[in-house]
Amino acid sequence: MKKLFPLIAAVLLAACSGSTTFVEELPDIYPDYIGVTIPAGIAPLNFNLPEEYDRVFVRVTGSKGGQLSVKGRWASFPLKKWHALTAQNAGGFLSFTVLGRKDGQWTQWRDFILYVSDTPLEDYGITYRKIAPGYTTYSLIGLYQRDLHSFREDPIIESTLTPGQCMNCHTPNATDPSQFLFHLRGKHGATLIQKDGVREWVTTKTDSTLGNVAYCYWHPDGNWFAGSINPVRQCFWTGDQRTIEVFDLASDLVIMDVRDYSVIADPRLTTKEYLESSPAFTPDGKTLYFCRSKAYNVPAEVEKVKYNLMKVSFDATTGELGEPETVIPASEENASISFPRPSYDGRWLMYNKADFGVFPISHKEADLWLMDMESGESRPLDEVNSPVSESFHNWSSNSRWFLFASRRYDGLYVQVFLSSIDEDGHCTKPFVLPQKNPRKYYHGTPYSFNVPDFTKEKVQFDTRGVYEAVFSDERIQATVKQ
Amino acid sequence: MELGRIHLVEIQTQKIILETLTKKAAARCDGCLFYQKMSPMDKQYRIALTSLLGAAVFAFWMWLYPQAPHYQEQNQLFLFTWDYLGRRLVLPGGLADYISEFLVQLFYIRWAGALVMAALAVLLQVATWRASGEKRSLYAVSFIPSLLLLIYMGDMDVLVSYPVAIIMATMLCPLFVKAGWHRLWLFPVGWWMVGPVIMIPALLSVIKGHKWEDILALVWLFAGAYAQYRLLAAQYPLRDAFFGLNYYRLVEILPAMQVVIPVVTLLCILICGSGMDFRHPALVNGAVAAVLFAGTWFAVPLTFNKDAQETLAYDWLIRNQRYAEVIKRAEKYQPHNPVSACSVNMCLFMEGQLTNRFAEFYQCGIQGLVQPSVRDNLSDCTSQEILWMMGMPNITLQYAFDLQESIQNGRKSGRFTARIAECNIVNGWYDRASRYLDILSHSMFYRKWALERKAMIQNEALVSKDPVYAYIRSVRFKDDFITRYEGLDLMMAILYNQNKNNFMAAEYYSVWQQLKKMEGAE
């Protein structure tokens, strides 16, 4: 049968070609996978033609051998054959011949190419929060994990399990699912910290701090995490270019020792005059990057809030912090930096740059930038940026792939895109997270993908006892480190 | 001769068979003597009583509380897609939920809503009667579950899934009673179809069975249900899975009636099926029926929150642009809450009476003119209509989105989705609008509207010519600035100064100032 397959495909192609119109243009496929670079073993990059085409025929030919043909309402590739083909062509490319039928007439477009990287993406998958994009209220939200090598998506926790409690995003320690945390907001709010399957529910607010920690980043040794404490508010614009503005009423940075749940609230990072946010440790654990802006009267002066990229040294043995120093004075360039994320190999630091604020997701002009940690030079990632918002991003465990959230398809709903980076910092054209039937999925889902991150292995989270633990309000109370 | 003898034997045999059959029939009819005794309580009499129930329930929802079915419809969006079906069927009680949502979409039409509710009441009564077996009596008792449901449905957050599930469960009673070992698969399948009310036929079969394997079957039901829960519904609290995931809209609340009604239904089945004999069954039934109807008559006003229902009625009338009727109702009785004030003020404006008459009605300051953003699925309904008409599509978008996301069981709303699509159209965000219109195009009553809009946004000229969208675009803000509820009056002033045809902004600004003064004076 295997031997017959190319023959059948050729016959089908010939049959389609009987009354086929050839056009020199590239096909208008959704999602735009033309010229993207993928890792071998990724889930099939199924795609759709415009809705008026009722049938599609695709033949994929590998530069290093192998062939695959599919026919249907959309291009849907069988998982095992796709994996075999991408594995065979790692370091090469796949050539796609696409035919579409409209009103009984077949059209064949110019073939397009998709590159298969020889750099593996070893992680199991990605995690993200799904939430309806928009305003102040959310009915159903949840944290999910998606196998990157198939279309399987599993919930980690959904809001149905903890009714009435909103949840912040899942934060693993450098893609390691054996240690992670997330924060539940609401009347029964708490920060869940899980290590090696052991769960603890912690109240991170102390008498000396503004509130519970919200946006966190683990120290590589797993004994600490840094978190920002920020009462978030939304306000709304009147024009037809933007709707929502998200801002912090105040914002401080603390570091928590998870061995005894004590908080370091350093006065230099908890000032009233400044807003501190977006913490991230370097992979050696010796430096903490964060963003800082002068505090203004918000929302009236929200456009004046511009964050600089800062860093401070950190001694994990004593918990002592050095003197904060400015790395990129973005405010001087009338810009604002958020979400610095050092690659796990210590080579790069990726961050967001927008006109103001610390929530790039609602900023059309927000782009991804890359800083060379050796030279300190930064550049916009033009290879991956779009005219609309690029926001949250994270690195794969081998630091050769990264993902980011972007609203590029319709300006509102956020999807996850993946791209690779070489040793010189050149990035490849990104591709959106593959779906079984992409148009149906992305056009029909009421959810945006928030704060995506890679996960080395599948996250193990047993939902038994969660409801009882949340509503019992039994918490470990964090203290201030003396 | 021989033939004659054979013939005689045959006749005798037939006689014996006939006698045996007659005895058996007589024995079987022992319990049915009441049929003969209560001659007035014949089929026509029962049909008449059942019809009375149907007619009363129909009249109730058609004329007394038409706003309640409307509210149910507003808080869900049934879609004719396989995905939608799949999302319902993956949860226990999902089939009942799916059927219920299919029915609730019909509530878009007033009489259809009343008809469905009446049909459900009748079905439950008939199902209760039939479930009580062959030795049944006390027909009037079979009305109790339907009447209890009517009382319970006064709580506007009781989902129609609940009566649908109870009806399905009650209908399964005869099958379960006779099923024997087939209950091993019927129990888990039944639990998955209708949810925990499957306990009605399950317990009935155990009570009627009197055998050790019946207890075993019940244990099996719980074990199977727990296994299914762990496998497929682990993202819900165990408590919710075992008391019903889709019976009540609000989370964290388990109304006592949700447990009481299935128990009462089971008791009614047992009472009806106990074969109680009365000398004057018609009299007894008549008396029971009279007590039940009278009890319902008095109980309904106790459970139906008058202010909530009146507020709902305003919203329903405003949605149907029957502004004068709101004013008429408010002249007789007006609830003292900001939503009602908002609604009446809006209707006064629409009837050209706002500045002259607003002081005649209940006022509660500026929030009675336009509500600040409130996180529930009703309070901002009128406010989003006002803001839309005044030319503030972005705040309308926020209100409509938050209204929809405040539906606690996570369902969407045809009404709010349509408004979200419209706000995106006015802003020229056609890709986003298209997404919402595509969703609506899978519904029954919003489909035509959505397809028309979908065609419209392909051509900018058509959007610009549309009277509503063109108007909103003409009166909306020309500048981009941040909004604040406290500064809404200034925003109204800006709107009026931009476009002097925006009478609504002018009139609302004027009343806003007067209300502020009144607040200050107090």
Mind explaining what this structure looks like?
The complex is a heterodimer of chains A (482) and B (522). Chain A has 482 residues and is mainly beta. Chain A folds into 2 domains: 4-117, SoxY domain (Immunoglobulin-like, Sandwich), CATH 2.60.40; 125-469, Neuraminidase. Chain A is 8% helix and 41% strand. Chain A is built from 4 helices and 37 strands. In chain A, strands 1, 2, 3, 4, 5, 6 and 7 form a 7-stranded mixed β-sheet that branches. Chain B is mainly alpha-helical. Chain B has 2 domains: 37-304, no CATH class; 308-521, Serine Threonine Protein Phosphatase 5, Tetratricopeptide repeat (Alpha Horseshoe). Chain B has 29 helices and no strands. Chain B has helices spanning 2-29, 33-37, 43-64, 67-74, 82-89, 94-105, 110-131, 144-152, 161-171, 173-179, 183-194, 199-209, 212-232, 238-243, 257-272, 281-303, 306-319, 323-332, 338-350, 354-357, 381-390, 393-405, 414-426, 430-440, 447-456, 460-465, 467-475, 488-498, 503-521. In chain B, helix 5 (82-89) crosses helix 6 (94-105), helix 8 (144-152) runs antiparallel to helix 15 (257-272) and helix 22 packs antiparallel against helix 23. The N and C termini of chain B lie far apart (117 Å).
